[in-house]
Design a protein that fits this description.
Blueprint lengths: L3 E14 L2 E14 L9 E2 L24 E5 L5 E5 L6 H44 L3 H21 L10 H27 L2 H7 L3 H13 L5 H19 L6 H24 L9 H23 L6 H6 L4 H26 L4 H23 L5 H20 L8
Parallel strand pairs: 3-5
Antiparallel strand pairs: 1-2, 4-5
Helix pairs in contact: 1-10, 1-11, 2-3, 2-8, 2-10, 3-7, 3-8, 4-11, 5-7, 6-12, 8-10, 11-12
InterPro entries: EmrE-like (IPR037185), Sugar_P_trans_dom (IPR004853), Tpt_PEP_transl (IPR004696), TPT_transporter (IPR050186)
Membrane topology: Multi-pass membrane protein
Keywords: Chloroplast, Membrane, Plastid, Transit peptide, Transmembrane, Transmembrane helix, Transport
């Protein structure tokens, strides 16, 4: 019986990444085999130094090549093993897929912001047109809540959004939110019926002022010096704009201020009274429940305060165009519900700070578009005041992310 050894020497070049390679050498690897021959191995390619050899009288089982080799016979006893090079583009394809996904997400988010602004613009335009000929904000608010409730039930019935699984405890917790939501919408309609759209939204720029006060009173959140300083241009700008507003009147001013108070109270209460032990509701479901509860809360009040004034007979007796009032009221109601729902959809995708900045830009877009559409006379001082107030809102949204230093 003959005993021999396989003696391997050579070099293998390995590279794991581009522009980076490692060079390994191996010498004098001896393996016993039953033959008088010797086998020399040479490896080339970007592979691990695992080799598979075969000989007529030797069949080791532990050597496995990770890639398919191309074997070239040089002589009767010498083989050259060359590994085929396979391009490794998995990482590149994954990176391309991630980039495409991010681009698609950015496009969807941009589309949502555009739809949010567009619905808000048309809501204010249609709403103002109706209030100019039908100055009944209580009835109009009830109509908008009724249309929103109808849309919500349709989305649930058509399985566009799942039916909510809500408990009695959660309904009790949401009730104060619905009350504030109702008062905020009614106050906004009241203000839009009394003053110009641009002035209403200039006053509503004071929302951060009420947020800071209510959060301090009910949540114990002490504002930073940066937050307090950002309120100065907001308040100063609103005062400057109010002093030079052509359509200024106190009912319209205080209605817009009441809207600020109600809407920010709703936001603060949502942090304070929402039940944490129950399964949390997503933003769209929460908005839907609030809208339905607001409708059932406010409709009896509207009937008691203004009576039934949205019937064809009443509108005709008042000399109004039925088609004009009904179509614009319906469009305003649809836009009202749609822009709020899209706002909640955006809030699920971005941070509160980004959403606040988007809301600030939305207010600018609404003010500018309403001035051009209704040809609202605006003085130079009025525009300066509005600009200062909106700049303060933007500053507030930025400094909110600055956390106070802890001792």
């Amino acid at each position: 019986m003959l005993h021999g050894a396989v003696t391997c020497s050579g070099s293998v070049s390995l590279s794991g990444r581009r522009n980076h390679s490692s060079f390994y050498r191996y010498d004098h690897i001896s393996l016993p085999f039953h033959s008088e021959s010797s086998i020399a191995f040479y490896s080339t390619g970007r592979l691990s130094p695992s080799l598979c050899c075969s000989h007529s009288s030797w069949k080791p089982g532990g050597w496995i090549l990770s890639r398919s080799p191309v074997i070239k016979r040089e002589s009767s006893d010498v083989f050259e093993v060359k590994a085929t090079s396979v391009p490794d583009d998995a990482d590149e394809s994954d990176a391309a897929a991630v980039a495409k996904s991010k681009m698609a997400e950015t496009l969807v988010l941009g589309l949502l912001f555009g739809v949010w602004y567009l619905f808000n613009i048309y809501f204010n335009i249609y709403n103002k047109q109706v209030l100019e000929v039908f100055p009944n904000p209580v009835t109009l608010t009830a109509v908008q809540l009724a249309v929103g409730t109808t849309i919500i039930f349709l989305t649930w019935a058509l399985n566009l959004h799942k039916w909510p699984n809500i408990s009695r405890t959660q309904l009790v917790a949401i009730l104060p939110l619905a009350v504030m939501h109702t008062l905020g919408n009614f106050s906004t309609n009241m203000s839009l019926g009394k003053v110009s759209v641009s002035f209403t939204h200039t006053i509503k720029a004071m929302e951060p002022f009420f947020t800071v006060i209510l959060s301090t009173m009910f949540l114990g959140e002490i504002p930073t010096a940066w937050v307090m300083s950002s309120l100065v241009p907001i308040v100063g700008g609103v005062i400057l704009a109010s002093l030079t507003e052509v359509s200024f009147n106190w009912p319209g001013f205080w209605s817009a201020m009441a809207s600020n108070l109600a809407n920010q109270s709703r936001n603060v209460l949502s942090k304070k009274v929402m039940v944490q032990k129950e399964e949390p509701l997503d933003n769209i479901t929460l908005f839907s429940i609030i809208t339905i509860m607001s409708f059932f809360l406010f409709t009896p009040v509207a009937l008691l305060v203004e009576g039934v004034k949205f019937t064809p007979s009443y509108l005709q007796s008042a000399g109004l165009n039925l088609k004009h009032v009904y179509i614009r009221s319906l469009l305003a109601s649809i836009c009202f519900h749609a822009y709020q729902q899209v706002a909640y959809m955006i809030l699920q995708r971005v941070s509160p700070v980004t959403h606040s900045v988007g809301n600030c830009v939305k207010r600018v877009v609404v003010i500018v578009s309403s001035i051009f559409f209704f040809r609202t006379p605006v003085s130079f001082i009025n525009s300066i005041g509005t600009g200062i107030a909106l700049a303060g809102v933007f500053l507030y949204s930025q400094v909110k992310r600055i956390k106070p230093k802890t001792a």
